[in-house]
Amino acid sequence: MTRAGSLRPRLITLSCAILFAISAGGCTQLANPSAPQSTVFPGSDWGRMIQDLYGLIFWMAVVVFVGVEGFLLYTVIRFRRRREGEAVSQTHGNTLLEVAWTVVPSIVLLMIAVPTISTIFIGDMPPPVTTNPVRVTVIGHQWWWEFRYPDLGVVTANELHLPAGRTATIEVTSADVIHSFWVPKMGGKVDAIPTRINTMWFTPDAAAVGEHFGQCAEFCGLQHANMRMRLFVDTAANFDAWVQQQRAPASAAAAGDAQQGAELFQRSACITCHTIKGTNAQGTIGPDLTHVGSRTTIAAGMIDNTPENLAHWIRDPQGVKVGNKMVLPQVSESDARLFAAYLQSLR
Amino acid sequence: MATATARAAPRAGILARPVAPMGIWSWLTTIDHKRIGILYELTAFIFFLIGGLEALLMRSQLVQPDNTLLGPGQYNALFTMHGTTMIFLVVMPLSAAFFNYIVPLQIGARDVAFPRLNAFSYWVFLSGGVLMNLGFLIGAVPDMGWFAYSPLTSSQFSPSVGVDFWVVGLQVLGVASLAAAFNFLVTIIQMRAPGLSFMRMPLFTWTTFVTSILIVLAFPVIAVALIELMFDRLFGSTFFNVTPAAAGAAAAGGDPILWQHLFWVFAHPEVYILILPAMGIVSEVVPVFSRKPLFGYPFMVYAVVSIAFLSFTVWAHHMFTTGLSAIAMSFFAASTMLIAVPTGIKIFNWISTLYGGSIALKAPAMFALGFIAMFTIGGLSGVMHASPPVDTQQQDTYFVVAHLHYVLFGGSIFALFAGIYYWWPKITGRLLGDGLGQLQFWLMFIGFNLTFGPMHFLGVDGMPRRVYTYSPGMGWELWNVVATIGAFVIGVSVLVFIFNAFKSLRTGERAGDDPWDGMTLEWTIPSPPPHYNFVEIPTVAGRNPLWLQKHPELAGRHVPGADPIATDTGHSGSEGSGAESHDGHHAVHVPDPSYWPLFAGAGIFVAGFGVLLSAGGNLSLLAVTGVGLFIVIVSIFGWSLEPVNEPVQA
Taking Cα atoms as reference points, which of B472, A214, A58 lies closest to residue B480? Predict the structure, then answer.
């Protein structure tokens, strides 16, 4: 019995091809541009280089996917058993075919390997634009981020500010276990490894001004999920203003709740772990709080920085984020309100 | 069952060899490769249910943002144990089950080369699996991830003994794997039937052979790494520790990246240890259900060997974000991409085997086809993160979770189910219901794609893996709901399988010797096979000997006149004593069961348990380890000194 003349296989092929084309095309639409941590809507030069490479490999993969799966489906439908005991021609192989499907994929892979390797070397070289770069040292801690700007004298935590259009060189290390610094909008991740410093660079686009999400991308223990960060890409003027503000010592609390909170703070155990520049608080275990009031979130990007959340955090840090290193004696509700008022005033 | 004929040189061992044919002791002391295969299969299946339950709990936690079903510690323990369980206690032993049951049958042997070592492998595997899971009983479950990155595993950052359970459990499992691998290497090299040259071996036997080589080369690396980690934790050595012992003390000087190198030098070949047997199974099922011999057999063999070789050259692609040099990254990117070539050759040859065939879409074939389709997707996403810059966006996101499940679930698990449906009738004598099999396949196929397909999107949208929670507004809600629904559909499909299995055992259709019109030697003997397998060792005159025998008209270029399967009557009597066997066939020599593999395995369990007791800080409890090792040594002596068969009592 010959099957080749029938119309059905061709219809099957056609419908398979359409199905695959739709599903493959759909894939690109499924990336969610409003996802704050999306990896495929880059906002920096380095991020774009990665995305271009990914786009190339992705579309090649789509072609191979449609071809292989389509051919598989076609073969299975076309050659499905129609009656028992069908005689089947016993082919054993074809050397020419074997050579073909060794050589053709090799060529396809070469088309991926060449731009891959050139991108690797670009990423490994010094940044292309070296005028006026911003240097940042990123130190991973269980479970928060310390950001130091050695040339600017700024130390902050969990919220990184970078100016648009200036290349940032990021030096990543860790104070304890391995973490990974990752703000997808800017590019790939870099591991934070104790005793080692890994560097990366990227230049935020002018169009990327705004808030971007990032988080630790290497499992680092109990609260890995809540080791998050924010990146604020600022205009040049806003960045300079931010730097001026951050360099200043803590503003003296004027009066009222904030001032009472300041007195409480200086007498509390808080000062053994936290630094507030210009005060007795010079601890280095926890985040620098000199300008904590200017941050949008607390507990490493976990909750919004509001007076209520801050007071709650101070009363029950282990309830908010179990396992974190902040262990302190029970604070009364009124004292927590005073602490929060003080910390909120540190802008 | 004992025979009346006196055996040569009756000599008693320390313990009499047990001879009961049935009952619990016959299973505990069995050295029959088929029974050991069944034990592996059952044990691995129980671990499969445990690992699956762990997955369902994780998916339930992630179904909505800020969920509080599980705490961070519980979630971290679950993903650590899920990964460890599925790799070491499910896919590896399920493959080992088929190595055990099927390989001797495919090569025309009566057992493996070292039957007692084989039993020992199983008992040590069981010990390791139990030690690994023992932490659940005392609430100290490993929670540092299956990759156990240093320095998170140091006693400073992981003071719980959970890590020690993992270290000891994995070390013991390695002993089991190594013993089994050596056994299968010797079996395949030495015990092939006359005429069954290497290039006539069934592909599943080939993949068993190559997988065994990978185990022999890869497991010593993790053994060394685990000993170093154990020393760091127990005795304060500094292989990986970087943090000073006390404030102000000198840095410990260890290197956490050393652990990553050692771990991945082992763990990447391990990935192929998990997938090659699956490829072997698919290479058996596809030809039989297409009624065509495997297309491009020699190329399929070369591809398996090349994949195995390349698997040792790609480990650092797990480390593209650790700060490797550009040269190193380029090398590992290129070597990783290169693996796609032999993998592609396999996929094209499977499809070409199907092409022009008469494809029976029975359950084993459905799972094998599912394997080809899903493994292709996993392979393509693998090529994406072979590119280091791209990988820096994908590593440690759900994109990688999707990729690895398309390879290890869509790949290995689908193929293992193909193997279960294919060889079940040989093992039990009854067929699994095909209707229920189709139902299970479609449920599993749909559930699988619902679960892991959306994880590609989650990864692209930036969701990291190994997070117990996430905030609303990240754009991850929808796909997490879909993935959780899919996971429960997979759960239902497994229940369908269990029902099918019980139904088959009670009322399943009798299979006969050769229910699928098979091609290889295992289908020439009864189902289930007698415990000596072959009455007479066959002589093989070609690939797919049974197929050639049944369909000489299809033989094509096959040597005319040669009988594809001859029996060599002189061969089978050459070993043993010439005793009459149970059903009248002459000279079927099978050694008696033995207590010693069980005792040696128990000794290793006690030794491992001693390490765990002392992990609490009291090193004098290492004496328990001494006791365990003493049991092992005594067992080895008893083992060496016992006769092949228990001398027959007067």
Answer: B472
